[in-house]
Amino acid sequence: MKRLFPLILLAITPLKAQTQAEKYWLPSVTFSAESFAHPAPQFAPFTRWWLPGNDITPEELKREINLFADNHFGGVEIQPFALVMPTRGKGRADRIMSYDTPAYYENIKQMLAEAQKRNLIVDFTNSSGWPPGGPHIAKEEGNLTLEFGIANLGAQPIALPRASHSDVPTAKLVAVLAGKFLNDTTATDKTFRIDPKTLINITDKVKNNTIQYSAPKGWKAIAFWSVPTQETPMLIAKREAGYVFNHFDSLQVKKNYDYLFGERTGLASYFGKPVRAIFNDSYEFKANRHFSDDFIRFFKQQRGYDPTPYLPANMWRGYNNMYERMAHPANAPYFSLGADDWRLRYDYDLTLSDLLQKHFLNSSKHWANARNLLHRTQTYGFNMDIMTAAGAASIPEVETMLFSKGSENGYKLITSGAHLYNRPIISCEAAVYFKRAYMTTPHKLKLTFDKLFSSGVNQIIYHGTPYRYFPEGYPKEGWYPFYNSALGIDFSSNINENNPFWKYISQINQYAQRAQYVLRSGKPHADVLIYYPFLNYSEEVANPREVMIAGELKDTEPPLPAENKNVAYSRAVDTEWLKQIMPLIDELNQRGITWDWINDASLQELSLLHNKRLSIRDNEYQSLILFRLPYIQLKSAENLQKLAKKGANILLIGDVPTQQPNYFNYQKNDIKTQKAMQALAKTIGSHHIKEQAEMLNNWYPSIQLPITYMQPNLALRQQRRKLSEGSYTQFIWNESDSWQEVPIQTEKGLEYAYWLDATDGSIRVANLEKGAYRYQLPPYSSIFFMVSKQTTEMPLSSKVLYNPSVAKAIATPEKWHIQAGSIKVENTALFDWKTHPQLKYNSAPAVYTTEFVINSLSPSKHYFLSLGKVYYAADIVVNGKKVSSEVFMPFVTDITPYLQQGSNTLEITITNAAYNDFVGQAEKGERVFKKLKGSDTMSAGLIGPVQIIEQ
């Protein structure tokens, strides 16, 4: 017990100094132009590798490891589970369910040895299935939920009421309160009103399960119980599932890791090479209201008051249970003490956040780091301080389904936390979208990457790749665990050899590998901070200008069904605030002003440098924006007032906030907060404006950008990095479906500029044209702009770029021959297959052939083939010679060396998504895909217009 004491008392603030494991795995990256085209494998995407429990062989594991390495994967995350249905075949179920056996670990060790040979990094998911746990966790060692029972009080003793929900014999009594219940309105709003002035703690009146307390009519007793949730890991590949371990108990956290990754497994010799990290998924648990054995004591310490008399305000069925909220979104609080219940819930939520960090995040990191490992985790799942939690992870992670809609501003909660706490790698469970199975294409993958990169992510981890597996009852394409009609499961993405786009995966991965190399070089460089006052992110909100909301490609894919929305039980204030701030964020984005969110914990550590820059943990910012704040923590307001007096650049938009969110002494502290913010607003150097339109004259001139767009452009998103020698790189993404000219000016002294294209690894000098560095950025495409104070040796490309502003179409083939499997369409114009009765349900590769005539070729000109709309990849042959494979927009390639004067032949092989074929099978009665019956199909084929362009 004594040896565990330091683990239990780990600080609740993220560990700031790098540990030896972090120095080993997370070294600083210095950009080298020579390495840009072919960065080290560690910068390539990873994939979540799903294993069917232990129904695996070492031969197949090693084969797939080599397949990953050969196709520019940087690593894998091992996730064994039992999502195999049906499980026909002799012994199959037994093999699947033999995870965590000597045979399983022997298979895994052989795989690890092969990964070591191929320099492939391996992460392990914490246990099998999700949430983590297993039969090594006893029922009483699981997560706890705070439940209650209620009974009428009177003149006589009464039986102690047990928990009305989830009661078990091992439940522990926390407290018993007595109070006067006001008029019963539960018939209309299901919430009991309690007179808070009457609430008293009568726990000491409990004797032998009886309440020895006399009370007037209308009084009730509420008994609060700490109850094990008895939650079991879903899909664990073991006959005995056991229980999810208690994430709010450091001893149980350690016990779980010691068992799953301890000496008995034989895995320790691979820690550090190739095993990098233990991964924990997001924290969605089946607890109505999380609780811990030390909750009351810790709450008093952190919040300054005893929460016991106020526990009724935190009783809300499903408040911390995502599954309950989704099933019953109309659930209401059981009790109300008055208009300030929201403060009591805020304090409870913040305390849970602190406890999760103390017991789980810091303990996980401590355990892993001591073994030369990292802790990678998705730091969200209930109302919590997401940014501080991100700082407590070795590698914080987002996912593309984050907060339902996958909003870029939601992603930035995690990436901003990582930046504030200097976490160099920010990963993403990427390309996972609900109701989008089999719709993942190269174009969609790149859109996903670019949206994530512009939001601050710099490590893609695909969701995911199934082990190659052909159990009876599955289609010829084999096992894909995340589409199953019988179970109602429908998630993307299936990145494996049976995917029609697998032949392009190396090309796709190399794009991400180059981009991630640049996005990990140097440090993130945000111009301004925006204060985020909430402990959650509303799933109601996404920026209307965003693409890929909830993973939907409009006008290309079938429309999404009714939203899979996880409703948070909170006031509408966060939803309205986020809706109101979107125009401000658009304004910053279109001007190229880079920004991050900041939370209270970091706000309270902000300081001011001699150059009047704001500083936090060696990161510098020019300004802080406070936007229409509903409230701000008192300590934050007081620190900002001090900074404003010293000359900090603070922009306050809207009225001065009059509240702080904590309950302790809230009336006095509200007044203190208001006075501090009023003083800030009057300070010279601060900018207090009522409306956003006033920013133009009052605040923008105070922001000096190293890289400036000459004119605002709403289509652009960006992420900037500052390199060690004072250079800058800026990732620029065109989030629109049209070409955009990007004219850039740089600050004085930054004279040497380059364009870096991650799609092909090319680097070009950026030349000044009419006072700016100009680039024609294709639809949904990206480019890196690099600028330096000194000239740098660069492996420069001489490739001529297509420029639509000066190009001229000289031929447009109109008639085509199409061969798709056994189907032929002769002498036809181009069309979308979903409109064609013969091809609507066809997903076969299609060969398009045509002829065109070029009357003359000029040696001073370049000639490009523009394919127009392509669904979804094209292999191009001109006059019998292979030109290129085009998988990204704008689907333009240089064909100058392949053309001849006179007649030319053109052959384009189009690779379609498999989805339409599966819909067709569903229409014919195929049970595997029966949930797709009646679904719309995706766009498919070559749509064009196809043009030969002279430039």
Rg is 30 Å
Q: Per DSSP, what share of the residues sits in E-state strands of 2 or more residues?
A: 25-35%
Overall mean pLDDT score? 94
Assembly status: single chain
* Total beta-strand segments: 52
Helix proportion range: 10-25%
Low-confidence stretches: 1-11
First-residue to last-residue Cα separation = 76 Å
Tertiary shape? globular
Structural category: alpha+beta
Largest sheet: 8 strands, parallel, barrel
> What count of helical segments does DSSP give?
21
- Strand order, largest beta sheet: 1-2-3-14-17-18-19-20
Descriptive overview:
The chain starts with a helix and ends with a strand. It has 21 helices and 52 strands. The strands form 13 sheets. An eight-stranded parallel β-barrel has the order 1-2-3-14-17-18-19-20, surrounded by five helices. The chain has a six-stranded antiparallel beta sheet with strand order 23-33-34-40-36-37. Strands 43-42-44-50-47-48 form a six-stranded antiparallel beta sheet, with no helix packed on it. It is α+β, with helices and mostly antiparallel strands and 951 residues long. 49% of the residues are buried. It is globular and about 105 Å long.
